[in-house]
Every structure is written in structure tokens, then in C-alpha cells.
Design a protein that fits this description.
Rossmann fold, 25% strand, 7 helices, alpha/beta
Length: 254
Amino acid sequence: MYDLIDECGEDLTRYGYSIKHLDKFGVTTASLTIEDDEESERRGMREGDYFILNAPHLYDYGVECQAYISSLLSKKLSSMLKDLKIRKKDKVLIVGLGNPDIMADKLGKEVFDGIKIDALSKTNNIFKFCPNIYFSTGIESVDHVEMLVRCMYIDYLLIIDSLTTNNASRLGTSFQITTSGMTAGSGVVRFNRRIDEKSMGVPCLSIGVPFMIFASILNDKSPQDLLLSPKDIRENVEIAGGIIANAINEVLHI
């Protein structure tokens, strides 16, 4: 399975995928729905709704560009929640996946840190959790999340994680929102149970940005796989994480 919908190797235009060029900062957006198992298998992507925002000049501009992208993500997230019939009072669990000790895999933790909650309020319905990785806890992230969903009667999930891409120019510049859920560890080829509506019993929206790209080099006449990331990875992850956190906060605190 691919992380980004438009890297599945298929000509998606015949399925209704079209790129919309916006009027600021060279930003483009596109949407696609994979409706059944047959389409999912053919395209190598899970069933669900997909939204892609590409911002190739994100790190060339300042806070105005970041605020613009955050606003676009906020509007789309709000629209997708409405389509899922999510109500304002519903309980949400925001899950920051990934490895907080590795910058390229720290997007989930960055967003987690930026989410606003009112833990002391009796009416608080926003909860957040950062499970860390299996090798640090001995517990799969999907099991952490499932326990919380069941015990806390969570109504829906927002999942954030770093993604992988096939295109170096998209590192840190493509934002994807999908209702198809997410598999913790898939970026490093650890295919666990998927966190999605089928496994959790509640709607799941995932938000991701690619910060890693696979590459192979020939070392001592034997191939070696590498996972590469941008040279300005710390700043890029902080900016992207802030953009996503601000978008979520805007939707949940309006």
C-alpha cells in the first residue's frame, strides 16, 4: 500500500481525480473516493475519502502561508466531519503516532503538543494521546488506541503520523486527510493491524505529511535500503505540526 493517494501508479483522472490550482503560494488541492474493495486492490490504497493539499513553496514563505494552509485544512476537516455526521458534543481522541525520538517520525508528537484541551472542565470532550512505538512500550499502538476507545466511549478518532513519499520534492509539503485510517509502523515496513473504522468501531480520520523517502544504494556490492529525510527536518516538522494542530484546534474550538 502507498501512503499518498496520488502516488499509487494509476491514472486517477479517469476516476474523478482533478487538481485544483488555488490563488496563493502555488497551493494545489485534489480529492478522490475509493468506494469498494475492488478499487482498493487495483490502486493499492484503502477504501475511503482522500484529500491532498500540495504546498511546494511552504518553506519559502512565512507565517501568512502557514496560516493560509492551516485554514484550508481546517475547512476540509470540518467538511469531512460533517459528512461523517460528527456532532460538536461527540468525544474525540486525537492520536499522535510515530517515534518522538526521530525527527522525521515526530509529526504526531508535534501535533499532540499543539492541541488545546481543557482537562479540568467537566464538559471537556477532546482527548489526546501519544502512544510512542512498540519497541519502547512492548504494546502495539493499535492496542493502546483500541483500549482507550472502548474504555472512554470515544465517538471518533483523529490520527496523525509522518508518511513516506516516492518524490523528494514532496517531503514536508504534501498534506493528506483521509477517512481510511492509518497503520502504525507502515512507513518502516511494520504492517500491524490498521487503526480504522472497522477495527475501532468508530469513524477515523487520519492526517499525514511525508517526511521520509525510501532509497536503495549499492554498498559492498549488496543493496542497502535507506530512509531519507530533508536536511531542515526539525524546522519543517515543527512548521507542519503547527499547521495541523492549528487546523484541528480551529475546528474543535469554534
